[in-house]
Write a structure and sequence with these properties.
Blueprint lengths: L7 E2 L6 H5 L12 H14 L11 H5 L6 H16 L4 E2 L10 H7 L5 E5 L2 H10 L8 H20 L5 E5 H6 L1 H12 L21 H7 L11 H4 L2 H18 L13 H20 L3 H20 L6
Parallel strand pairs: 1-2, 3-4
Length: 311
């Protein structure tokens, strides 16, 4: 919706921080232009941004680098995306970056943060159906709690003019009202075309299920879809893990969840069910194999160049 605004570009996830910060030791001092240039090349060749359309080249990104360090590179990637879209502002939306908010805010201290909260049962169902996850809801429930706690930390850290909370349920029930509130927070005018975001063709390399969702207008029907999309056991699992945080966020438990899963049963799910379903899901995740091959290529290149980090 925000990407449909005439002044703001929101490209698909970049995974800049979660994918590349752990690897920075391999590049050494990024005040050295040659080392920084190698990082730019690796991000564009082997990172998730390789799947953007249009796809940047190392030269494209390098033209936007305005200083030393990783932050200048991350900023250049996003600046390239905005300029390519013909827009003066940009946003970044990688979910995993929620867990790296300290690093993100250190890089972009003036960032305005939109914190979206959604019912964990709906989140678990959505992630369960995604191509890039296993099918067991237990890891999703735990991740929802961690991400919720991270959002609380961001809220404590930032002043009100830099952060805003958005309820997913409120957004899909009344998208125009919530969008107007969001755009006012961002200091921009609401544009009616933002409600028509689904009419914009997406050339992102994603699966057909996700592509169909991108081409569908928001609907309140998605709020309760988990009631038919999750089994009773899955609902009980999610509500057992998320009970305290759900109550804090105003999500009511279901009658199904009135009987929590026992610790012994949770242990069995963690040790047996999750690994089995994760392996089974991996064989259906063809894109995951592509990402794995790129990670292996990166590791081999570092080894051959003699800069592989110490264990």
């Amino acid at each position: 919706m925000i990407d449909a605004h005439s002044r703001i570009s929101i490209p698909f996830e970049s995974h800049l921080f979660n994918q590349w910060l752990p690897r920075l030791d391999s590049y050494g001092d990024l005040s050295d232009p040659a080392r920084q240039k190698r990082l730019v090349s690796d991000i564009v060749r082997l990172g998730v941004v390789r799947d953007w359309s249009p796809r940047p080249t190392p030269e494209d990104v390098a033209r936007h680098v305005k200083g030393p360090g990783f932050g200048a590179v991350a900023n250049a990637v996003m600046e390239w995306a905005a300029r390519t879209a013909g827009k003066p502002r940009w946003g970044e939306k990688t979910p995993q970056h929620t867990m790296m908010h300290d690093e993100v805010l250190a890089t972009w201290p003036r960032a305005q943060v939109i914190m979206i909260q959604r019912d964990p049962r709906a989140v678990a169902m959505s992630w369960k159906q995604a191509r890039f996850h296993g099918n067991h809801v237990l890891p999703f429930a735990k991740a929802w709690v961690r991400h919720s706690q991270a959002l609380d930390a961001v809220e404590r850290k930032l002043p009100p003019h830099q952060r805003i909370r958005v309820s997913y349920e409120a957004l899909v029930r009344d998208p125009e009202t919530e969008l107007r509130r969001l755009m006012a927070f961002l200091g921009e005018d609401f544009e009616a075309q933002q409600l028509e975001f689904h009419r914009k063709d997406s050339s992102y390399d994603t699966d057909q299920r996700n592509l169909a969702r991108l081409r569908t207008p928001v609907s309140a029907d998605s709020i309760d879809r988990w009631k038919s999309g999750l089994s009773q056991y899955e609902v009980r699992l999610v509500e057992t893990i998320c009970a305290e945080t759900m109550a804090q966020r105003g999500y009511d438990p279901s009658p199904i969840g009135a009987k929590p899963i026992t610790e012994a049963r949770l242990g069995f799910a963690r040790r047996v069910e999750v690994p089995v379903q994760r392996v089974a899901g991996a064989f259906k995740n063809l894109k995951g194999f592509v990402y794995l091959s790129r990670d292996l290529q990166w590791a081999v290149e570092q080894l051959l160049s003699g800069v592989f980090p110490e264990p």
